[in-house]
Amino acid sequence: MSSPSLATGKAPQSALGRGMVFGVVAGMLYGVYSSFLTLGMDVGHWVDWKAGLSAFTVVYVLASLGAALNDSLSALWALLIMAVRGKLPELVQTLRSRAGAIVVAAAVIGGPIASTSYVVALQTAGSIIIPITALCPAFGAILGKVFLKQPLTWLMGLGVSVCVAAGVLIGISNGVSEDSGSIGLGIAFALIAALGWGIEGCLGGFVTANTDPGVSIAIRQAVAGAVNLFLLLPLLCLIGGDVALAPKLALAAFTSWPEIALIAVSALAAYLSWALWYKGNALCGTALGMACDATYSFWGPLACWVLLGIVIGQDGWNLPPVAWLGAVVMVGGIFVLAIGARRATQPPISIPKRA
């Protein structure tokens, strides 16, 4: 039985609070995923690859390999959890349904397309593009309004705008690389990434209103991992001039220690993060759910600072004051958005007439 949600209309106000909590926790887990994946791609074979391979291979192929490895292990975690919960028959049933087709589409749009666009943007324009990708809640809110008839008042729009502004504050705290390359091209790919994640958030919330979020994400991660591993990775290696490099890198990445253990942790966090993201969007609507999840723009740097900067002792991971200010601004934006969402779903007060 599906839970009350804003996926296709209004929801009880009790669902808003739970959806917001799910969204914020999803953002926290995204930070855990980002930090462990970054660490896993900075030890063992990855260090040798970055020193010995061409610049194109290091920038694009290794990024695709890391995403493929993480999503594939995340899919294994998802299938294991579904098996323990006795949900594998439901997974097969969902995959054969219209909802399953929507999840597959969301996986391709939000996984290989959006994520690869993000990597390309980051490598061509530097970290200036990070705040641009924070436009994904705005895209998601507009799409939810247009296609799912979800409420979007001026107050909710103000909250989304404040959250985007907070993402800008956090993003510019990283500065701009002097070797960033074509900024125009990077901005274009960043917009593609933001739009892709906005579409995925909208589709994911719609589907999860009627399906188990764990089942949806099991399908999502399996599709994203397969497309990255068997299509995108060989394609990038072919563009780089050595298609035979793809299976060699993949075999080494899947069988090397300790990086595989670190990425296994990131994969579990990624599965839980996406599941809560989909569920949060289903409960409180795309605008509010994605704004809460967008706190990843703070939780990501924070998790990297704790794991890589404090625990591991690497330099360059300290959070500047602007990032902390951005976090406070984002909390304010979510608060405004929540007020707008509650007013949008609250029935009008009926004032009895005088006798």
Characterization of this structure:
With 355 residues, the chain is mainly alpha-helical. The chain has one domain. It has helices spanning 13-40, 45-52, 55-84, 88-95, 98-125, 130-133, 136-148, 154-172, 183-208, 213-239, 245-255, 259-284, 286-293, 296-311, 321-345. Helix 10 packs across helix 12 (259-284) and helix 12 (259-284) packs antiparallel against helix 13 (286-293). The termini are far apart.
Low-confidence stretches: 1-11, 176-180, 346-355
The count of strands amounts to: 0
How many structural units, i.e. domains? 1
User: What's the shape?
Assistant: globular
Overall pLDDT metric: 78
Structural class: mainly alpha
Biggest beta sheet attributes: none
> How many helix segments?
15
Helix proportion of residues, in percent? over 70%
Instruction: Measure the end-to-end span.
Output: 45 Å
Order of helices and strands: HHHHHHHHHHHHHHH
